[in-house]
Amino acid sequence: MHWLMICRHHPGKDAERAAIRDRHRAHVLSGGGRVRVLIGSALTDDDGQSPLGNFGVIEATSREDVIAFAKADPYAQAGIVADIAVTALATTFQAHRIDPMTPVNAASG
Predict the structure, then answer these.
(1) Is residue 70 packed enough to be buried (19+ CB in 10 Å), middle (13-18) or exposed (0-12)?
(2) What distance in Å separates the CA atoms of residue 8 and residue 48, rounded to the nearest whole number?
(3) C-alpha to C-alpha distance for 34 and 28, rounded to whole angstroms
(4) Alpha-helix runs per DSSP H in the chain
(5) Are 3 and 40 in contact (CB under 8 A)?
(6) Percentage of residues in the chain with pLDDT exceeding 90?
(7) How many Å is the maximal CA-CA distance in the chain?
(8) Residues paired with residue 2 on neighbouring β-strands, in sequence order
(9) Cα dihedral sign for 11, 15, 21, 23?
(10) Per-residue confidence at 104, pLDDT binned at 50, 70, 90?
(11) How confident is the model over 79-87, as a mean pLDDT?
(12) Per-position DSSP letters for 71-87, written without gaps between them
């Protein structure tokens, strides 16, 4: 199943986010051993620069796996993430049109 994950960040955490960005990216690429990240990126204000959070299109067996993945993210562990929203995508979602960030074998489900 496919999910849209949106993580909103607390404002004023730019320095903390920059300090652990490499750890965050490694977590995303690994899928945390639970999920497969098809695509993801930073979310910004309308200026395209000011960070608001991040999103991902995730392949996982359950909402709980996506939430566990998000909570294990170094950004969440460091208190940068204010809230996490996970929404199921339609069964007709065309995931095959995306070049995944996480290899197929990274997800356990």
Answers:
(1) buried
(2) 15
(3) 11
(4) 14-30, 63-72, 74-77
(5) no
(6) 82
(7) 40
(8) 59
(9) negative
(10) low
(11) 98
(12) HHSHHHHTT-EEEEEEE
The strand pairing partners of 89, in sequence order, are none
If you count them, how many residues does the chain have?
Answer: 109
Contact residues for 73 (Cβ-Cβ < 8 A; gap 6+) = 7, 24, 27, 28, 32, 81
In the structure encoding, which two tokens stand for residue 99, read together? 């070049």
**How sure is the predictor about 96, in pLDDT bands with cuts at 50, 70 and 90?**
confident
Nearest CA-CA partner of 56 in 45, 66, 68: 66
Measured distance CA(85)–CA(81) in Å, rounded: 11
| pLDDT tens digits, 25-47 | 999 999 998 899 999 999 999 99
